[in-house]
Structure prediction request, 550 residues.
Amino acid sequence: MTNLEKFNGAFLSSMNIKASDLNDNLAYLRNKAWDSLAHYDMISALEEAFDISFSSSDVVRFNTYAMGKKLMKDNYGITIE
Amino acid sequence: MFRIVSDQPARSPALITEDGRIYTYGALAKAARRLGGRIGGRGLVFCLCSNTPGSVLGYLACSEAGAVPFLLNGMLEEGMLRNLTDLYRPGRLWLPVGRRGLFPDAAVLAEEEDYVLLDTGCQPCPLHPELALLLTTSGSTGSPKLVRQSRKNILSNAAAIAEYLELNESERPITTLPMHYTYGLSILHSHFLAGAAVLLTEKSVVQQEFWDFFRAGGATSLSGVPATYDLLKRAGLFERDLPSFRYFTQAGGRLSVEMHRRCAQFAQETGRRFYAMYGQTEATARMSYLPWRLALEKCGSIGVPIPGGSFTLVDAQGGEITQPEVSGELVYRGENVTLGYAQTPEDLTRGDDRNGILHTGDLARRDADGCYYITGRMKRFLKLAGSRVNLDECEQMVKAAYPDCDCACCGTDDHLRVFVTNGADGEKLRSLLCGKLGVRLTSLTVHEIPQIPRNSAGKILYPKLEELP
Prediction:
C-alpha cells in the first residue's frame, strides 16, 4: 500500500465521505463530515497506519487535507504520494 | 433568565467574543428589551442556536417578552427543521441571517448581531402558564421528544450549580458545548447568575484558534462530555500552559474510570478543581456532582445530589433500597425536575406531569459514604458522544430504508451495533445511519447475519446479539 493510500484510508475510515471528496479543498468543518470527533478518529487512524505520534500542536494545526500532507512531511518525514 | 441578566451590575462584562468584542450586562439587557418588544408577547419562538452574541440575545429577548423559546441546533438539517415548524407552527423564528432563505415568506421583524427575527404569520398556540423553555433530548431522530422546563426549574438549577461550583463574578468560562444542549445552556445560566463573563466561541478544542482565545480571554474553566475529554487530551490540555485555568467539569454520559483518574490527577497536581457530574435534560440539567476534593478518592462516581435535591434507589418491586452497595433505579427529587415531555403542540398546554419526582431510567448504587455510582440503564438507548440514540427508533429507521430485511440494534455507550439480515448493503447503510443519527462513523458498525435471533413469541433476543463478535 502506498503512503497516499494509507493517508486516504485514515480519512475514509473516520469520516462519512467518498473517495472523490479527498482533495485539497477538504477542510475541517468545510465538509460537515470532518467535525471534531471525526478529526480525533482520523488522527488516531493516521498514527496507527504510520506508527507515529502527533504532537498536540500538530493535532490542532491539522485543519486541511493539504496541511495534513505538509505536516506529515515536515514533522514526521513521511511523504504522502 | 432576563431578570438574572438585568439584575447584574450594568457595567460588568457578560459576553466576550473571539474578536475582542465585550457585551456588558447593561448593553445585553437593553438589546434584549428592544428585541423583546419586537417579539410581541407570549408565543412560541424557534431559536436556532450557536455560541454567538446573537444567539444569546435572542434567547434573553424571548424571556423578556414572556415568550417560550425552543432552542435548536443552529445547523439543524433543513428537513428536520421543517418537520418541527410544520408540527408546532411557531409565530416567531430567530435564526442566523444565513438561514433566512429557508423561510422566504416570513416577514422580517428585526435584525441584530447577524440574526433575524421572522414573523411566520402563524397564530400563537396556547401555552401553559408555567412553561418557560423547550429543549430536545436528542436532536437527531425522527420525532424528537421536547422537554418542558419552567422558570422555577431553570432558576433553581442555576442557583444550585453556582453554589457547588463556588462561582463568582471573576469566572470566565469558555464555551465548549452547544447552547441548545442543556449542559451548555446551564453554563450560561449559572455564570450569568454569578455575574461572570462568558467567553463565546464556535471553535472546537481541536482548533488552534480555540486555545489562542482561551489564553487571550483568560478563560478560567471549561466543560465537556466524555468525548470532549478524548479531544482535550489529544489537544494537549494536560500539558498546556494555561495560567488562568481554575476548574473543569464533565457530564453528559459516563466518563471512563481511566479518564476520570487522569483528570483528577491532573487537577491535583496543578491545583485545579475537577468535577464529575450527572444530569439529564429532564432534570433541567444537573442532578449530582462529585465534590472536587473527592475526585481521586471516588473515581468513577457521580457524587452526591446537588444542593436542594435528593436521590433514592428503588428495587424492581418499587421498594426503597436503604443498604449501601445495592443497585436499583435512581430516582431524583428536586425543584429542577421538569414539567414533562411534549410531542405535539397540544402537550404545550400540559402542566406539571412529574411533581418534582424523576425516574431517571439509570441504575445506580450508593457507597457507604453516600456517593453514587451509575451501574447500568433500564431503557433501550445509548449515549454516543453525549447524545442519546434510541435503539428502537434506530431499528425503525433501518426497516424504513430496507423494508425487506430484519434488523436489530444493540451496543454500548460509544458504540452502536446494527445487525441486519440479507438484502441490506452494509456500507451504504452505515453511511446512511451515520448521517441520520449524526454520530461519528467509527462509533457505528453494521453486521450482516443470516437471521435475527428471536424467541418463540417473536421477541428479539438481545443478550444473544450482544454475544455475537
User: Anything to note?
Assistant: Residues 29 and 35 of chain A are 6 Å apart (CA to CA).
